[in-house]
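Tutorial handout. Part one gives the primary structure; part two gives the three-dimensional structure as tokens.
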Amino acid sequence: MASIRKRQGKYQVQVRIQGQSISKTFCYLKDAQRWGAFYENKLNLGEELDTLDKQLSLADLIHRYLKEITPTKKGAFMENIRLKRLLTDPIVNRKVYQLKTRDFVDFKNRRLPDGNRTCRYDLSMLHHLYNVAIKQWSYPINYNPITNVPKPKANPPRERRLSDNELKYILNERFKNPHMNNIISLAIETGMRRSEILAIKPDSVQDNFIYLADSKNGYPRKIPLTLKAKEILKNSILPYPVPPNALRLAWNRMTKRSGSKEVYSKSMVDYIICWAMDSDLFWIFKPNECKSKNKKCKAKTGSSWRIISDL
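Part two.
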């Protein structure tokens, strides 16, 4: 039964049925009666009464997410760095039951000076964190407060090609790490991702291809090799003994020394080389011409075709 008592000018209502209890304080008697009747009916219908622990903070959810969810992702390394940076923000010390959409709007405004992309990453991670907490961990959170937070505009895609001066600067750069030049040269020749290059093993290179059992989209793929790419691999130690973060930092230091923010790793992919019907024939096209794995590309004639020995 619901019991109501007056304390310090307010009304405290308590519902107890079969060992389950819940209580709340209201300023008005009618609100207390309404609330008590609602939860009394729920308990009489046999529903379990879940209440959110008022000591549960956002930091507690993030620590559990880091332990259980992040290790299952391909981008676990970078997400681990982002979440640990997020743990330094004052919003993580707030209790989950107190956090509302307006709190995350304030958080978004604090993160915007670090860039739209960075802010979008943080909001996406928090949105998924709440979804996991509600759907998988069964926390009695009424709604996801990130859903109604407007995300900042995404940065426009880069379509420009690497200039001759930038390419010359990159290839002539003297890195402290002796493997960096080979890694960058291979990226220019093949258009491979950083994670794919660092995953190359000696048995991945067969004939005129690099065979990858796994890629960013979850599918295996093979990358055709030019004569220069073969020479680079021949002079490389595979797999490259360079951690992903060390490679990223070395690249960032190089771009900072160059004095140009426009030098960007993905700009090096001028064209993608795609396997065609014949063993010696490849099709060269721009990255934005093939945005989907299953997209059907019509064969082109003329200067779009090259023989592998000419590449």
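Part three, for discussion. The longest strand covers residues 10-17. The radius of gyration is 28 Å.
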